[in-house]
Each structure stands twice: as C-alpha cells, then as structure tokens.
Amino acid sequence: MADKKLGAYICKGCGIGDRLNADQLAMIATREGKVAFAKQHDFLCSQDGIAMIQADVDGGEVTHMAIAACSRRAKTEAFSFDNVAIGRANLREGVIWVRPDTDEAKETTQEMADDYIRMVCAEIKYMELPENSGEQERNDRILVVGGGITGMTAALESAKAGYSVSIVEKSENLGGMAARHFKRIPVVAPFAAPQDTGVEALIAQIESNDKVTVHLKSTLASTSGAPGRFEAEINKEGSNVTEKFGAIVQATGFNPYDANQLSHLAYGSTPDVVDQLGLEKLAKEANGGAIKRPSDGKEVQSVLFVQCAGQRSDKEGELPYCSGHCCLTSIKQALYFKNQNPQVDTIIAFSDLRTPGAGGEDFYRAGQDNGVTFTKSQVKEVTANGGSLTVKMQDLILDEETSTDVDLVVLATGMVPNSGVNIDDVQTEDENGQPVEPKPRYDANDAILKLDYRQGPDIPQLVHGFTDSHYICFPYETRRTGIYSAGPVRRPMDMKQAQDDAAGAAMKAIQALENAAQGRAAHPRSGDLSFPDFRKEGCTQCKRCTVECPFGAINEDEQRYPQFNEGRCRRCGTCMGACPVRVISFKNYSVDSVGQQIKAVDVPEEFDEKPRILVLACENDAYPALDMAGMNHMEYSAFVRIIPVRCLGSVNTIFVTDALNSGYDGVMLMGCRKDEDYQCHFVKGSELAHIRMSKVDDTLKQLNLETERVQIFEIAITDIDRVPTIINDMADTIEKIGMSPFKF
Amino acid sequence: MSDLNTQMKERYRNNFLREVTANVEEGEWVRMCMQCGVCAGSCPMGPHWEHPPQEIFMMIRANKRDEVLGSSSMWFCTSCYNCIARCPRGLPITHIMHGLAHYGKRLGIAPKEQPTVKFSQKFWDNLYKKGRVNELKLGLALYFMNGIGEGIKTSLKMQKIGLGMWKTKRMTPVEMVGGHGCKDIKGFHAILDKARQIEEAKAAQFSG
User: Fold this and answer.
1) E strand or H helix at A509, and its extent?
2) Which of B9, B17, B55 sits opposite A404 (nearest CB)?
C-alpha cells in the first residue's frame, strides 16, 4: 500500500465525551498525531457511526484508522472493516473507568487520554496490512501415524468430513492394543457389563472406505514441510514412497510398563502373576469359558487385582502418574470371572478407586453388585506358594497387616507413551561443567515422525514423555503446528477417551490445513494473516530466533539464515522479541509499531512530579485482566501507559531501554505464569521474557538506575483485583525512589 | 493347618459376605458400600463403639465372621437414621446394623453382658409369652436386670409415676398376675416357631 491515508475517529459515548475534552483529543490527533482528519461521534459503534466510517473507507479517505473509544477487546465486530489497518485507543476501560470523576483527577485523566491518542496515531503510522505471502498450499490429505483404535477413529472422522487419509502402521495389522483386549469398558447405558471392543467393525469400515489408504508394516523415514505442505517419506519394508499432506495426527499410543521391574509382586517368577494385557490374553483364550491359570491350566477360583502396580509411585523406575483407565479395566476383568461363574472370588486391592467417565460410577456399582470385593489395601508382596499365591497386604480401612491366598494375581500396571525421542535430552556441558556444542543424547533413528526440523526429529514432550502442550487449555495441540497428538501418546486414557480424542485431533488437523491454505494462523491467534518479515541484510545469523521459537517454526537455509515457515508459525512474535538486531517484524506488529508508541508518550519534566510508567501487557491474560479491572471501576494510577503485546515473548529488550532513555520512570511487564504449570498461550514466551529481563538489571546498573524501575509480573486472567494493586505499588515505589534522571 | 491359618487364607473371600447377603435383613446391600466413611462421621454414638458401620462392612468383606457377629458395635445403634439419610450409596445402614445384631444374637455369638442385648432378650420373652407386651412386667424386669439392690432403688424412685399411671388408668397392678394376651396364643406360637425353624435352616447352611 503505497499511499497511507490516516484518520482518527473519536467516540464520545459511554461517558467519554462527558469526562474528557474530545476537541482537545481531536486536535492532538491532527496536530501531533499527524492524521489527516479526526472525526468525533456521540455513539461511534451505532449504525450511524459505523456508516460514517464505512463511507470514508469506501470513498478512499482512509486506509489506516485510529479508533479512540473502548478497549480493543470490545465491539470487535462493529469496528471491523476490510482492507484497512485499525488501531484502537482504549479511552473507556483504560482511562475513564479507572479514574475517579473528580475535579482534581480531571487533569491527569485527560493527559492519559491525550497520550493514548498520540500512541495510537504513532502505531497506525507503522502498521501495514498483512498480505498473502504466496507460500500457502492447500492439501486436503491427512497423515495418521498409528493404526490403533485412536488412529482408525481419527481416519474415519476425517474421511466423514470429506478429507482423505493415509494411515501408517508399523505392525502387520490394524487394531493396535485395543485388538488385544477381550472386551472393553462399557460406553453405553446402563454401563453394567463389559462390551465388545468394536475393533473388527472399525477395521472393516477402514478397509471399505475409499478415502482411507492404509500402509501396514510401514514407518516414517522423514517428514518435512509445514501445514498445507507436509511431505512424508513412508518406508514400507525397505522401499520408500513420498506423499504430501496438509496436516498430521500422531496416534502412536503407548507401550505397557515393563512389569519385570516389579519383582516384589512376583511378576516374572511365576506365570500366575500377569499384567492387565496378560489377563486379556487369558480371557481371549477362554473366550467366555472359565479362565484358566497359565501355570497348570487350573480353572481360576480366586483372583486378586493389584491396582497402581508400579505407578503413582515415587520409586525409581516406577511411573509417577495415574494411568486413568486401570481401575475400570480391573472391574471389567473381575466381571470376566464373575459373569462366567459368580462363585469365583475376585478381590480388587486399591488405594484410591478412580472411575472416570460418564458411566464410571455405574460400572463400579455393577462390579460391587456382582460381588467383586473392593478393599482399600496396599499390596506389599506376592509369593508363589506351591500351587497358589500368597498376597501380603496392609488393609488401610481395618488398619492391619493381613494376607490371603489366591490362584491368580493381576497387576494393573501403567501406560508408557510411545512418543519417540525426547528432543530436549541434549548434552550441553561436558563432565567438568564446561559448555560444549549441543549434542543430542537420543538416537535420531528412534524417532517416530523423523521431522527434518532444526529443533529435533519428534514433538516436544510436556511431562513424563507425553506429547501435548497443555492438557487443559489446548488439548491435541502439540508444539509443532499442524501436527496433533491423540490417544495415550498425549495422556493416559481408555479406549472411549482415545476415540473422543481422535475426533478432536482430526477436527484440529482439518482446521490447520484449511487455515494453512489461506495463510491464516492456527490457535491461539486463529485467523491472523500476518507472519514474520525478516530483513536479511541486517541478520547476523545469531540463530537466537531459530532456537527460541516455541513451535520450531524456523529452520535454517543453506546459507545459515533463518527460514521462516509461515504455516508452522503461531504469530506470537517470540522471534521478534529475541532478535538482537531487530530485523524481524510483522506487517501489523513490529518493533516500530510498539517502539513508536513508547516514544509518542509525552513525558513531563522532572519537576512536574508526574512520573510515567510503561506497562507492556500480554494481550491474552494481562490485558483482559486490566480491562476487567476497568469494568469493575477499580482505580489505578493515572501515570501508567499500557501497550498490549502479543505475548511477553515478543517484548524486545530495546523497548525497555528505549523507554528508560526517553525518561520513563518505570517499566512493568505483565505476562502469563511460566514454570511447569505454565499459562503462557505460546508455551515458552513468558519464560523467555523472564530470562531476557533478568539480564536487564546489568543495563540498569550501567545507566545508574535503580533495578526496581523494571519489574516483571506473572498475571492470570483472574487477577482482576491484583493488577490495580501492583500498578499502584509501582507508582508508590517510583515516588519513593524518585523521578528518572533521564528526562529532557 | 491351624484354624488361624485357614482363616487367613480365606481372607477377602466372599464366604461371609454371601452368608450376610442370605441371612441378614438388608444384608444384600453390604457389598455396595464404597468406604467413604460418611456413616462413621454421622453417627452420634461414634466415640463410644469399637467399629463404625464402614468398618463393619469392610470386616464382612474381609471374611471376619466371628469378630463382626460378636461385636457389640451394632448394639449401640439408636436408630437415629442419620447414616441412612446421608449415605451417598443409599445403603439402609440402620436396618443392616439391626439385622447383623439380630443374626449374631440368634447364632449365640452376640456378647452376653451387653445391656441392649439383655434387654432385647427380656422384651422378646415378654412378648412371646402372651403375644402382647406386658408393660408392667417389662418395666420391672428392666429395673431388676442388674440385680435386686438396684431394682429396689429404681422401683422406689419410680413409685410416684407408677401410682400416677394407675390413677389415670394407664397401668394396673392386676397385670402382675397373668395379664392380657392375644386370642389364639397357640397359633401365635406356631407362627413364630415355624419362622425360627426356617431361619435356622438357612443359617445352618453357613455354620460349617
């Protein structure tokens, strides 16, 4: 867009006109903000107001507009115009609602509004309309890795929605772990008895569906590209075929925990101690008849199930987490016995019975009703005892040590995610603690996806090897855009949950490939058309952007320059914040569009006793919290100037140094929680911002400034009461330590 | 193998649970307890007895027959129905407690010197005799339950109330000799004896 036509619209509704001098705001916009015109309206979001703006847009009067009204989070539908860049000045939630309506406060409140007008005018001057990069492709094929119940369901759900699918399965059959089960936990009312797994029916549906291609005995040799243009090399018994995909669903399931590590429970020393999959095998062999024990083929008369065997434990080599399905699975297996012969004694020794899902509680009752004995006991030891097994346990209700003899013991062991290699397992120091060139400790050949991403051949793991990025906020979303994980590779679960997961991940995959086709971002900035722009001449090849990108979007080209893959990018701006030479920016969000806002603020002289505090607030949580504080009419200092940022990760240290150099007295950064229970919408953004800001202290000391002047906070969206308090605390701190010496 | 050993081997088998299910009033509910302990927390007798209902149910499942039936805990129940009102699984806990107490008594395992047990026996004997409860005799039996000295003391203390009841024709000393009864006492005894026979036959299946 060669010709920028700037205009401002100032709303006087919602009390803005009564509290503020709108004529003065309009004058500032035209004189200082250098916009061509500044129109005032009594009720800008009304039909009449919108029509006025639309007429200017249609008439070519304005291409970049500043709307000074309510928060950018309010009235988004009304103030949405095609093909124009829009900046918003928050005069309602950000000014009049957080300031008292008194004569003394009038002057500082007006100054606040004046500054927000200056800032928005500066912002739109440095904004461009995002344009299509031409990098997009549309490919409506989905690659499903893994042919278990999750993979098959994902494939069928995608096919139902009209997309074609390839399933890559390493074994020679579809069905995975589910096919090894005799029956499944019931999923329909009355949830009273084990029901058919349905795996055979699923396989039949897959085989008769012409949208689904199945590659058995196949693995991935390499995966490259980005959403909309993934290219996967599929290795089938030595020979490779290459296929192109729009998106990928990873449904690689789990491996059973190796019960040989549980020697105190006699696993491995007698065949009559089995794990849950082992019992499924026995049940399959019995096929509805009496289940026989492996050692001598005797019909089992008594069986004891040990819950949480080798899991929910802090012992070395055991799993620390709960696998979620095992309580229900043990009830199901106890019913295999009870339904065949009610005289068989079935004992479930649990520590906490967990029966998730709609029918979980009903199935538990069904187990009790059929005479399964549930005892809250901790099993200490199982010993083979000439023909039977003696189980020593501590009854936690009766508080006593006790023991019982049974024919068969079943260990409810956990799920270990089959997620390939841990790409974060990298050696960075030698034995003496000296930094060395990073070297992976894993074997890249063990990877499942074999991504040719610079950041490693598999998906980053969240915790305990499960590949997800946030269980609650973004299920299925991995930290590789366009690749979604589903089923027990994501978190431990049963077949029902795995199938629900599969449908969810399939929907995400479809969304990703459709977004990629239009050059739009995926969650959480869904629909964003901007992407990182990069001025190659200025790049020093420091690689910080490629390392810090939380989504592995940036590769390196042959000349070792960063190669931005738009489709993989989530538009958080972490690369922009990382770049020491500031050559990375977005069309509508850049070092300039933020930096010029900082500079546009009118900083009063030292003796005016009016400090200025810059707040850079994450638009995901901190900014809404500030807005809500405004909605609740909670007052905070008139000396703050708030700029929303995409993520704290996009904050470049230059913003802070610039602010201090231009005479700001304090800088506050508000981002999401970082640590392992992080809330950052871009996973690593807030954490990286904290690391960068920890280095600002040195700069402050060099400038002879107090370190208290720059503070970083973790803010949740619910911190509505907290944000005004910390702002006022900061204002108090500034009052205590005095004004910045860097004012002109 | 010693008896104790056999008992330990059989732990958590369903033998006793099956017996309770068959012979104890509402006993089929015992297996539905989920061990939350709300009953134990709701019971006003909580501090006084040995085993709360939750524990009794677990002991049944752990096959502890003699300990359960010989326990005095069930005899503490005052039928306040707090546990029934609060049980999330809807177990009729009060009824089960009485059922267990009754079953233990019938088998002769219930504690002999427990006052509720003793009074219950007196109530039953009184009722059995005439088919009607003789309040005068039952009252006196209760006063003298723990010996003559205490009996005379309590009787003298209650003298005024007794005289008042006589005056207002609520009670008569004539009841002391014979007393009122139901019409067909032979038929009444036949019914109760038959019922006892049936119950005992059922219990015998589990006695050994």
Assistant:
1) helix A495-517
2) B9
